[in-house]
Amino acid sequence: MTTSELNPFPSRSVFLGVDVGTGSARAGLFDDNGKLLGSATSPIQIWKDGDCIEQSSTDIWHAVCAAVKSACSLANVSDVEVKGIGFAATCSLVAVDAEGSPVTVSWSGDSRRNIIVWMDHRAVKQAERINSFTSPVLQYCGGGVSPEMEPPKLLWVKENLKESWSMVYKWMDLSDWLSYRATGDDTRSLCTTVCKWTYLGHAHMHQMTEKASRDMEACGWDDEFWEEIGLGDLVDGHHAKIGRSVAFPGHPLGNGLTATAAKELGLLAGTPVGTSLIDAHAGGVGVMESKLESDSLTKESDVDTLCSRMVLVCGTSTCHMAVSREKLFIPGVWGPFWSAMVPEYWLTEGGQSATGALLDHIIENHVASPRLANRAASQKVSVFELLNNILKTMAEDTSSPFISALTSDMHILPDFHGNRSPVADPNSKGVIFGMSLDTSEKQLALLYLATIQGIAYGTRHIVEHCNTHGHKIDTLLACGGLSKNPLCIQEHADIVGCPIILPRESESVLLGAAILGAVAGKNYPSLHDAMKALNAAGQVVHPSSDPKIKKYHDAKYRIFRNLYEQQLSHRSIIAEALA
């Protein structure tokens, strides 16, 4: 019996998206209406030792293969139906030798550990040193590189692991490595190189449009920058170690899946594979064109609609993505990045380094956490749902005017992993103001709510800062884990003062990755066309119309801003005392 006889839908076009996050590899299959047919997850290993956080590309590839096979089985999708594949991943740094085998980036010397994870902060000193130079590339990342970008991490390896440095044949962003592992083509994405490697994508503006869809010789590296910071050896061989050629996201790579990769994934050799995206940017591609009926009535054009939006991709961290037709330089905010997400638009990328991770940290390190987890399990609800219910009951029992007011004497600065935007201070620390000896579940619920509010005030700070510098953001779109928490989304809407559009499909990052495959398979003429066809809006959450809620959050926002100013003051007092 043939595959088509076995399959009741032989003519379907299905697009596969793969997303490698911090803790797992996920695969999702979508039809040509952008509807999710099925998805699966496979855990990945992570090693944490202080500021050093590492993973294994071998382990990740095994997890990707397991997730893809499982998703195809769950969705009842056969190999012939998959018309294109796209990869998205965290912006972690992968090291491989000339055979493609892992090279350790770890003090431990463990050869499996060949990935420096995006959130690793070992290279803070190297970032500070790079930022002491005046290279013009720095103005395209908010005025300075972050320790989460690749140049500081590369410099750290060169200075600390000399043997590994001499062995590495290719340094790659994780999503580029995944598409390389799948196709054998090491063309890099404009998304990864521009956003994390200081590549100047606008060097290609005069050269071509996305519709020409071919890989381009890498002409956007600033060789003087690499020489100046002590990494001039990466310029050798036409930048062979960091990328000789680049392409727009969704550009078809090589001859599609190699026979080896196809066998490992349970798919057909030659299946088109699109040039990849960073996971947050895939989330942007998966939601940014989600249309509301009102948009077509109030905005003059599609461009107006697109440029008035900011996407919040809320996972372990939150990325804040906005696009514009003209380049906008915003201090402390990454970008402007040309064609790094939506081709031929400039991308502004704000972010908070710990959001989902911070909520987990606050909950898991509280005395009441084990009791709460047991109660949630017995009620068959998530810990977040249980906390939301506790807060509702507390508001009723105390006759609080609204749930948000429960935290009137508790304030949180959420910079537990530094501040990415807009103050761009990796040394900023988290602050919890208003603690007592109470260790009850109710006290944990208040801490949880105050943390959500602190995260939302951080988003308000980013939106206001971007609008002050030329953006006109009036609508948010949210996707990722935290966007599934109704309390979190309502607090963000009330605090920022913007409606928040949630996508019809809950797996926006996977959809964004699948869109890359759809474009690579020539199912759409461009990435933007594919976004318009496959993005779809779901629920819209509006800010409260109660003026008391606005007045309350305005007051708490002033306190939030003051917490950082106080921290700077405290730093200088101590520095003076120790001088």
Automatic annotation (TrEMBL):
Single GO cellular component term = cytoplasm
GO molecular-function terms, A-Z: D-ribulokinase activity
Q: Would you kindly state one Gene Ontology biological process term found in this protein's UniProt entry? A: pentose metabolic process
UniProt keyword annotations, A-Z? Kinase, Transferase
Please report the stretch or stretches of sequence annotated as the Carbohydrate kinase FGGY N-terminal domain.
15-286
User: Where's the Carbohydrate kinase FGGY C-terminal domain?
Assistant: 311-520
Q: Entry's Pfam families?
A: FGGY_C, FGGY_N
Gene3D superfamilies membership: 1.20.58.2240, 3.30.420.40
Q: Which domain of life is it from?
A: Eukaryota
Q: Which family does it belong to?
A: Belongs to the FGGY kinase family.
> Which PANTHER family does this UniProt record tie to the protein?
FGGY CARBOHYDRATE KINASE DOMAIN-CONTAINING PROTEIN, RIBULOKINASE
Would you tell me the protein name for this molecule?
Answer: FGGY carbohydrate kinase domain-containing protein
Q: Which organism is it from?
A: Arabidopsis thaliana x Arabidopsis arenosa
Upper classification of the source organism reads: Eukaryota, Viridiplantae, Streptophyta, Embryophyta, Tracheophyta
